[in-house]
Amino acid sequence: MPEIAADTVERSPVQLKSRDLEAFNEDGAVCLRQVIDHDWIEYLQKAVETNLSNPSEYFTRFTRPGDLGGYVMDFWVRSHTPDFDEFLQGSNISQIAADCVGSAQARFVFDSWIAKYPGTLTRTPWHQDWGILGLSFAIWVPLDPTPEGASLEVVRGSHLWHKQFYEEKFQPEFDAAQTDISNPDGSLPEPMPDIDAKRDQYDIMRWTMDPGDCLIFNSLCIHGAYGNPYMQPVRRYISRWAAPDAVLAPSGKLIAERMHKQSGASFPIRQDALMPFEGDDFPLLPKRG
Question: Does residue 188 register a pLDDT over 90?
Answer without folding.
Answer: no
